[in-house]
Amino acid sequence: xxxxxxxxxxxxxxxxxxxxxxxxxxxxxxxxxxxxxxxxxxxxxxxxxxxxxxxxxxxxxxxxxxxxxxxxxxxxxxxxxxxxxxxxxxxxxxxxxxxxxxxxxxxxxxxxxxxxxxxxxxxxxxxxxxxxxxxxxxxxxxxxxxxxxxxxxxxxxxxxxxxxxxxxxxxxxxxxxxxxxxxxxxxxxxxxxxxxxxxxxxxxxxxxxxxxxxxxxxxxxxxxxxxxxxxxxxxxxxxxxxxxxxxxxxxxxxxxxxx
Length: 259
What we know:
Elements: H1 2-20, H2 48-60, E1 79-86, H3 93-96, H4 109-116, E2 141-145, H5 158-166, E3 170-173, H6 178-187, E4 191-194, E5 208-212, E6 217-220, E7 225-228, H7 235-241, H8 244-250
Parallel strand pairs: 1-2, 2-3, 3-4
Antiparallel strand pairs: 1-5, 5-6, 6-7
């Protein structure tokens, strides 16, 4: 009973107090926010010249096509002549240039030469003839002939750079790991050429060979045999220029270093 009276008394007091100071709650209205306005962005279309050059550069970073390039190529008269070095299938980038030598910086001329002295040093001992003789920095084999999946493994750019620094001009293989092919084009160090058959089973290390890019053929002067090569396509002019950046400067896609 006492509790009920106390509650009634509290309610009456609260009601009386509320009636004296009646305050209507203010509506919940969000504060006004000024939203900045922007002018529409106008994007100008690429010029047809730039677009065509871009398309050609992108095309060179894909695998070699099976059809000749439709554009004039500076490599039509390019030939390579010398001794060949023959390897087999699945030559990976660790065999081309082991990871312990990746600290060498190719942009430094002295380290570039040193990098070349280790090219193909990772090949197993079953290769009795070494690509580079002891105490030498350059190879006497200007053309490397390989089997299937040449350049597989990691994506290191040092692999084609090491071959080029050693003095190799071209690699002829039955097929390539895509990343090695792309890195060869991007760096411009060696021509990654594809054969239409297993030349690695018919040539021997030390054979004298000639590669004629314009004719898409390899001639083995030691055996007297000729072999058909797949066209290098649009990748040819990029390698001829010295790599993707040199090609971009040559074609006006980016400013030349002299400007």
